[in-house]
Amino acid sequence: MIQSPLLPHFSGCIQGRWAGTLSKGKLTVSNPATGEVLAKVSDMSGSQTAEAVEAAARAVKIGSSAAQRQAWLNGIADGLLANREELAKIITLEQGKPLRESQVEVDYAAGFFRYFATCLDHLAARNLDSRIRGAQWSVHHRPAGVAGLITPWNFPLALMAKKLSAALAADCAVVAKPAGQTPLSAIALWTVAERTGIPSGRMNLVLGRAAPIGRALCLHPAVQVISFTGSTEIGQWLLKMTAAHVKRLALELGGNAPFIVFEDANLDVAVESLIANKFRCAGQTCVCANRVYAHRAIRARLVEALAGRISKLRVGNGMDPSSDIGPLINRAGFKKVSQHVADALRRGATRVIGHSPALPHHDWGCFYPPTLLTGVRQEMLVFQEETFGPVVAVADFVSEQDAVSLANGTPYGLAAYVFTRDAERARRCAEQLHFGHLAINTGTGPIPEAPFGGMKRSGFGREGGEEGLVEFCEVQTIAAG
Ligand code: ADP
Fold first, then answer.
1. Which CATH class is domain 13-253+458-480?
2. Backbone φ/ψ region at 160: left (φ over 0), alpha (ψ -120 to 50), beta
3. Domain limits, CATH 3.40.605.10, in the chain
4. Which of its termini does the chain have fewer beta carbons within 10 Å around, N or C?
5. What are phi and psi of 281, to 5 degrees?
6. Which one of 286, 288, 429, 473 is the catalytic residue?
């Protein structure tokens, strides 16, 4: 069992009351590296979720000043940074990623609270310049009200931080549900936030099985907005479930990111960017390059350089400082990656690096060996779906038009990467690629200051930037005659 000063309770929190004793069942949280049970956390019901919503609705009515909110946001950022090592340990134990990645995640999470503390001015009312149709017009941002926040397990601290920071900045109150695999980082975040003196009821945490909690958030009339990061299937379910109330949604759903390397690219930069982008969190991020398209003229050189780098990566327990890649989140993740690789090999792809996880004498647990495939084609599973594992899959292309249409040949539109020295080509690609996040000559993912989100089946709504704040506001226009 895990012991930490940031985990005084293994339960949710309603109106400042840690709600563990109220729930009958318990859910097990285990370390994906070892299988060890870390904690048994409360399994809260739909009616407890409704209670949390009502606590949040009361908190919203009280409201707060911008200065107060700024103090809370900066207080949480300070608290996260002061507890960086403890938080990083909790992330690694429940999620599996290497400890240094977890430390970066803590900094990243703190960055969102810090950023939103600086942009409350954006909520100030704006007057239109002149009287139009005999009235003076002004535009106001009102808090949306109670916000439901639902997050996945790959960035258990940072994704909750993104949503919570923007919601608090907008003067909303929240009912948050972290992923069942990784609730401990959220409990730790609540413990840190509690110390800043945020009024009880403004931040409520519910833990437990997803369906009853999700249903309660969708059906309770006081929930005005739901911000969700997760699979497209659950995003579609939320759309249906909230239709009756016409609730506002922000959905950051699955991706299937293309990574295009043109013949004029700086290959060293492309390789280093791909390694950093692809193997972060063992390949389990929604912005991980999933489809590498290499121009035929440089494909062999690119593959050789990648093979050299990938063969040096060490897989192991994230608590071991020599590990570059931790375990996948669970055996289901492992099976999915194995199935994608097996499908590619069966259909004619070549494995350049990577052992067969099917080796009978070795129990791989949740650890998948880093793998490099070439000769991949569009119809293979590795290109059709997000693999969510440490697998680099490479296909050839011959023309720019080819590359763009292959990249766009997916119902998803979250992140895309282009490597070229030709600025004009980069501009043309940017215009044609239907992805919400486009990185040119860099493998970088989102940052607090810039809006991030998807197109097509990757969802709508943005996190980060001023756009991320407005997701938690209602815009009201006043015409004063
Ligand atoms: P993943 O495949 O990454 O686990 P999911 O979409 O299943 O993606 O999960 C993302 C988040 O959504 C998690 O917190 C999960 O518990 C939650 N979730 C899953 N099903 C539902 C549901 N029916 N209602 C609300 N939240 C759900």
1. alpha beta
2. alpha
3. 13-253+458-480
4. C
5. 55, 35
6. 286
CA of 114 relative to ligand 1 center, distance in Å:
28
* pLDDT per position as a tens digit, 392-439: 999 999 999 999 999 999 999 999 999 999 999 999 999 999 999 999
Of 217, 141, 202, 204, residue with least CA distance to 478:
141
Residue with the smallest CA separation from ligand 1 atom 24 is 214
Q: Looking at the CA of residue 215, tell me the nearest atom of ligand 1.
A: 24
Distance 53 CA to ligand 1 centre (A): 19
Locate CATH 3.40.309.10 in the chain.
Answer: 257-448
Separation CA 224–CA 188 (nearest Å) = 26
234 lines ligand 1 (CB under 6 A): yes
> Looking at this protein, which amino acid is placed at residue 98?
P
252 carries an active-site annotation? yes
Cβ 378 vs Cβ 409: under 8 Å: yes
Confidence of residue 98 (pLDDT cuts 50, 70, 90): very high
Indicate the helix (H) or strand (E) that contains 232: helix 232-241
In SS3 terms, 317-344 reads as CCCCCCCCECCCCCHHHHHHHHHHHHHH
Q: Please list the residues that pair with 42 across neighbouring strands.
A: 26
Report which DSSP code applies to 9: -
Q: Does CATH number 3.40.309.10 belong to domain 257-448?
A: yes
Ligand 1 atom 19 nearest Cα? 210
Using alpha carbons, list the distances in angstroms from residue 417 to 72, 155, 301, 342.
36, 21, 19, 26
Asked whether the beta carbons of 391 and 373 are under 8 A apart, the reply is: yes
Please give the distance, rounded to the nearest whole angstrom, from the Cα atom of residue 387 to the centre of ligand 1: 17
Instruction: Please name the residue whose Cα sits nearest to atom 23 of ligand 1.
Output: 211
Q: From CA 112, how far away is CA 451, in angstroms rounded? A: 12
Amino acid in the structure at residue 183: P
Take residue 43 and report the two structure tokens written for it.
Answer: 């399994």
Backbone angles phi, psi at 233, to 5 degrees: -60, -45
Give the residue carrying structure tokens 């579609």: 236
How far apart are the C-alpha atoms of 427 and 405, rounded to whole Å?
16
**pLDDT > 70? residue 361:** no
Q: Are 258 and 412 in contact (CB under 8 A)?
A: no
